[in-house]
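Sequence only, no structure available. Ideas?
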Amino acid sequence: MARCLRIHAADNVATMLHDAKAERVEVLGAAAKQTIELRAPVALGHKVALTPIAMNEPIVKYGVTIGIASKDIAAGEWVHLQNCRSRVDRRSQTLDPHTGAPGDNPYE
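Reply:
I predicted one. Tokens follow.
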């Protein structure tokens, strides 16, 4: 079974410790024997939502807010550029989720 790590009890995301398909994964760390069903594949090192996170609610890792949900995020969903934004950088909302390239400047 693939696993992910919840670092702090207040975290609403966990970090994948393996590449995983849309499957049930074990949550280690501050999780009390929790499992979660991934909604789609999530790669090693990426974050997955442990609980539903409503649009404009904080994304919490290490016990601190690391971003804001830019849309509703379901439990088991990949948390990345496509559904979160920075509290301080409006440009982060335009980044491509796969390349990280900004989408607000067309390059010719």
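The domain at 3-94 is CATH 2.30.130.110 (Archaeosine Trna-guanine Transglycosylase; Chain: A, domain 4).
Hope that gets you unstuck.
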